[in-house]
Design a protein that fits this description.
The chain is of the alpha/beta class. The chain has 18 helices and 21 strands. α14 packs parallel to α15. InterPro entries: AAA+_ATPase, ABC_carbohydrate_import_ATPase, ABC_transporter-like_ATP-bd, ABC_transporter-like_CS, P-loop_NTPase.
Length: 520
Amino acid sequence: MEASQNVALLTVNKLTKLFGQFAACNGIDLEIQPGEIHALLGENGAGKSTLVKMLFGVLAPTSGQIVWKGQPVRISSPGEARKTGIGMVFQHFSLFEALTVAENIALSLDPGISLARIAEEAATLSRNYGLPLDPHAHVADLSVGERQRIEIVRALLQNPSLIILDEPTSVLTPQEADRLFETLAKLKAEGRSVLYISHRLEEVQRICDRATVLRHGKVTGACDPRQETPASLARMMVGAEVESVKRISDIPSGGVQLEAVNLSVPARTPFAVSLKDVNLRVKAGEILAIAGVAGNGQGELFDALSGEYPVGDNNAVRIREKPVGRLGISGRRLLGAGFVPEERHGHAAVTSMPLSDNLVLARHKSDRKAFISGPLRLIRHAAVKAATKRICEAMDVRKSGEDPAAGSLSGGNLQKFIVGRELDRQPAVLIVNQPTWGVDAGAASRIRQALVDLARSGSAVLVISQDLDEIFEVATEIAVISEGRLSKPYPAGELSMEKIGLLMGGMHETKSAPEAAHAH
């Protein structure tokens, strides 16, 4: 049955998903029309991911109904979803780097289609939608933006009527995001629909026809986002005003607290990025933000600065004027440094362990005396519990019990705890990689304000982020990393989105770069 103007493409009636007694989705109603770009908004833990996983057949609903083109359907697997006419592009890509573009696409299509035909159809479709791809290129050689094109083209080759996009611009330059929006306009003109999940409210205003807002697993409202402001949309999501970040102003900087001098690190794997003569300095009271598209050496830079992978030249990294290139993480923590890695699960936190144990894991070398009086078996005494409680209160970490497992928290709440764990030590130097990745507006505002306040107190802060709005919100200086090379820093007030986007895309700096920045 084809959808008509009088029949919704997708209708969700009272859809509920229980995990034990907890209702991740509680009686959700949703309707998507043909040719509509529909935003799904909500805080971390609001139920967005659970809802789209039910629509795509990854999770089975506990109760409720999904209606497709006027007919009730059961979607028991992603394969069933694709046959129904639903495609999905996840935030984290599922691509094999050693394979070509065409080979990756073939993995989700019928096995009877030849690779040559897949390559031809992918090339044609990618051109038609303004998403140019070389089907014979190896994924390992492609940028993150190009990899996302593969996922979108792979979904489009299955001729879906509805495409679900989860945070699609989080890894894109501004120019790549503009190209994506043009593609979405073409899909809409063809009568296809898009369910668009994003924490970037300016994007939602720009491209979406309607928005449905979830909070605590329930629908709390729907609106035309073009008639709203980012502030009003955020208020609908969190149920209260989201405070804007109070910037650093007229605070004199102090001495250099973090420095990299001609830092070069060879690639550790065939698909990693090598760092090439990276130079940076962060003074007390400053926030240096490093922008860049994912996969350009951000992780390698964090590893080198944090001591996760010490470097051969001891003088290549200096913390508080002391050479630390060959020191590990604990040695750098003892000098007053704190670190927040990009990956929450398994890297910044052990998800199966309670929050108090995760606190001790980050401190047992550098702050043991604060927590231990006697044998190591007494490590979880009152001081640990008190510190855990203090951090949760300071960062508004919402949790199910006094000391739950880290993995039981939503992504945003776990991120607030991890950042708070480092801030609680009042580090002289803090290095943070993607501080608000996948975090809702309220949590992001709290984390960013905490970083600004730390710098205001006299610490040096280095923020690695792909979110340009975030960078402009917190930074005193901005540099851009591309293919393992770091640009010189610019005062935040002298850069535009366009200039940063060009640098992120690999534009080589010239002598006139400052003038180019001023020109915008």
